[in-house]
Recover the amino acids of this structure.
């Protein structure tokens, strides 16, 4: 009997996943990056969900202070951010695969109207979208704004290694090669089924989760120790929820910021309904002499022991070193790729299509 992981490996060899075709993705990145004249002191990335969350997770892990994300419709926050920065020294990047994302178009129209007399829109604006007749492409083209074409075969939540992710990341990190290296290492480890210490097997994680889902566990609590990793949790949340939540399959991912949530949700986690399984993502502070770091690590270790003592299932424990930018981006390349492989295996096990999101369209039908 062919295993789910073997099916995914065969699909990889047959290049059925353009979002995991590293040679193609690198060539597309290099082609666009070499021709990209978009250098500013600050950047604002405008995109919703998978269009922006991947690069946001990287920027957050790298603690970048000159990168802002308009992935919301909070008008007060948008105005506050625009007041904080020097507008002429700021690049605005709009990302929408379809070119018709309501929130992105609203922000595009708002920012064009707000900034057209203050900066050179054609210079300071950039769009990443499909070449089609949708509004974003049409409007950007009309205003002379540079457009990078979004691959129509790569959906948002799987787009982290495409230009949707790598172009924004290249604005605040000079070694995108390390990102691709982590990606490649993850693929190689999966193909030969051999992992370095600290890395996790997507197949093993998927099998654990599938068994837990079948046993009635429907909530995945992801505990994050270290705020630098929090936006990674939001990327994981979308990847697993939107890819697997079909035909009554899937589970609810919860991104839990620790230690704050110990004072609000821990009672429920430990003594509430027996419907949860856990993952732990932590900044590795074992060599730090900072008392705050030591306290955070102590809380993490105490949580692990508590979950084990209570017999609550832990799928994986991931520790990341955040002391060196090149190492950070390599580690992120690994976890992005491994998580995508994990979700593909789970989808195969659950008999669902990981790429569609038909239910999301139901809400869009009611938008005015």
């Amino acid at each position: 009997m062919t295993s789910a992981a073997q099916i995914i490996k065969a699909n990889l060899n047959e290049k059925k996943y353009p979002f995991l075709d590293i040679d193609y993705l690198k060539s597309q990145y290099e082609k666009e990056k070499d021709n990209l004249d978009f250098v500013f002191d600050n950047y604002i990335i405008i995109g919703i969900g998978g269009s922006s969350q991947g690069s946001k997770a990287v920027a957050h892990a790298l603690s970048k202070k000159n990168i802002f994300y308009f992935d919301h419709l909070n008008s007060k926050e948008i105005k506050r951010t625009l007041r904080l920065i020097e507008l002429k020294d700021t690049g605005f990047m709009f990302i929408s695969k379809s070119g018709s994302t309501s929130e992105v178009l609203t922000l595009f129209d708002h920012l064009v109207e707000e900034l057209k007399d203050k900066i050179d829109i054609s210079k300071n604006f950039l769009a990443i979208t499909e070449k089609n007749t949708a509004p974003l492409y049409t409007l950007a083209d009309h205003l002379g704004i540079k457009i990078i074409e979004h691959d129509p075969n790569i959906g948002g939540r799987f787009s982290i290694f495409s230009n949707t992710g790598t172009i924004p990341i290249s604005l605040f990190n000079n070694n995108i090669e390390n990102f691709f290296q982590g990606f490649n290492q993850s693929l190689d480890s999966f193909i030969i089924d051999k992992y370095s210490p600290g890395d996790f097997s997507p197949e093993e994680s998927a099998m654990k989760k599938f068994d837990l889902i079948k046993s009635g566990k429907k909530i995945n609590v992801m505990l994050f120790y270290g705020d630098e990793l929090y936006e990674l949790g939001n990327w994981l949340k979308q990847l697993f929820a939107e890819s697997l939540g079909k035909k009554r399959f899937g589970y609810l991912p919860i991104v839990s910021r620790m230690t704050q949530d110990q004072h609000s949700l821990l009672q429920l986690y430990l003594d509430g309904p027996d419907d949860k399984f856990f993952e732990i993502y932590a900044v590795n502070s074992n060599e730090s002499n900072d008392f705050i770091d030591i306290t955070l690590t102590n809380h993490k270790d105490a949580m692990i022991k508590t979950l084990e003592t209570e017999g609550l299932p832990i799928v994986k424990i991931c520790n990341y070193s955040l002391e060196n930018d090149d190492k950070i981006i390599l580690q992120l390349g690994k976890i992005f790729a491994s998580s995508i492989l994990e979700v593909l295996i789970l989808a195969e096990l659950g008999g669902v299509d990981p790429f569609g999101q038909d239910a999301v369209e139901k809400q869009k039908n009611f938008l005015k």
The chain has a mean pLDDT of 94. Strands lie at 42-46, 67-70, 90-96, 125-129, 146-149, 219-225, 252-258, 276-283, 314-320. The chain has 15 helices and nine strands. The longest helix spans residues 325-350.
